[in-house]
Amino acid sequence: MKTCLVVDDSKVIRKVARHILETLDFSVREACDGREALDACLESAPDVILLDWNMPVMSGMEFLQALRASDIASRPKVVFCTTENGMSYIRAAIEAGADEYVMKPFDRDTLESKLQIVGLA
Ligand SMILES: [Mg+2]
């Protein structure tokens, strides 16, 4: 089963993402900030990470940098989530190692197409 780690400080977003991903046959874990996400990756690397940008404790960008600096054996694909207001962050996220991005709020078809682009749907 494919695995996805949903990283977002919004419980509502995590819930919506989990529901969509489960209908796409993913096994889902959740983290509410970058720190929790890094711990989860060190424990067991997921196939793909759905990553929020603005989070307390450790942001999406800080997480990407920490992930790159870590010695995780298999590198997860990263789909970065942003809002229309956050368009300027997309380039920075891609440069920091994100593979794709998705605009919030996203629906099932949009998320599925982004997962297809990174080779996981
Ligand atoms: Mg957030």
From TrEMBL:
Residues 3-119 form the Response regulatory domain. The modification 4-aspartylphosphate is found at D52. The keyword Phosphoprotein applies. Keywords: Phosphoprotein. InterPro entries: CheY-like_superfamily (IPR011006), Sig_transdc_resp-reg_receiver (IPR001789), ST_Response_Regulator (IPR052048). GO terms for biological process: phosphorelay signal transduction system. PANTHER family: TWO-COMPONENT RESPONSE REGULATOR, TWO-COMPONENT RESPONSE REGULATOR ARR22. This is Response regulator.
